[in-house]
Specification:
alpha+beta, Phosphatase 2c, domain 1, 5-stranded parallel sheet
Amino acid sequence: MGNDRYQILIVSASAAADEMRLRLAESGFTAVKNVTYPNVIENIRQSLPDLILLTQQPGMSSLLILSKISRQFPMVPIVIVATDINAEVVQEHLDAGACDYIYYVSAEKELLAFVVQQNLEHRLKVLAIEAQEETVTMFEQLERDQQSGFRVQQAMLPKSPMSIRGLTFDHQLYPSMIMSGDFIDYFELFDGRVAFYIADVSGHGASSAFITVLLKSMSRRLLDEYHDLKTTAEILTWFNSELMHWNLEHHVAMFFGIIDQENSLLEYSNAAHFPGTILCHENDANFLKIGGQPLGLFSEPSYESHEVHLPDLYSIVMFSDGVFEILPQQTLEDKEAHLLSLVKSHRQEDLDALVDDLGVLTARRIPDDIAVFTVESSG
């Protein structure tokens, strides 16, 4: 792009204005307009120029008009064009807000286009630096906001590890960004049974993380509503109904379980959560049933409740689907088989060892949120 893209405003009532327009046109500055002092502010409001050439006008205060322009339009550079060396005090104009000056007399008139060009280029550099600084500031603010959100989200998660009625709950979350769309909760119900779930909100980042705030609130409300909810399938239906009220652009996959320690029974339902939850006991490990529809998408979804009798010693291991993104296996079947093998080998070990063997900590990047959640019986 050439100089014709710049809008230059000459503020002058003298014949020199026409001469300056011709000189600027010779250097490609064709978008040049001339106005007088009384009309300058209104003209600038109508069409903001890239640069203003301000000359002395008999009977008018150039310092006053310069001050008005610089206060109202601080981003527009103003160049003082002095046509009378003896009468005009350039330094006062510079102090009042002018960015440069030129003595428009004799041979120095030839420098007009050069001075204009130099000031326009300087303005572009200043704007670029300010834009860069503003971008950095915005990203720093965004990161601070994300970090604050992360701390809030961490505070919403239950203590880990935690023991409830002979069960030990432990979890680790690894967000792809700062905040996570994965969420975990566990709590004792009024009848002495223990409820737990792992949820995976679609997408990742802050928008998904905000949904986890709703899930935490719903967890607490569930304790009040539980008297009217008989099965895990009914609980998922209740979660779905609550989320549908919000008209969210996200949906939620969830595995919800209730453990009855007294009767050694696990009841569970699945709302499209994948990979399948793994039940590990003795020297074996198996996936529990998957299926169901995501929460927050359908007004009348269908969920099933399943029951499993539990041995004295067992563990339940859950992952969010982000774990598949870092596994080296090529097919989904191979990835599932690898998860099953890892869970079997770590049946008696801690969660840190399982996470380490998954390669979460050594992954170059985490494309999607990863959650690992375990429930261990003490026998």
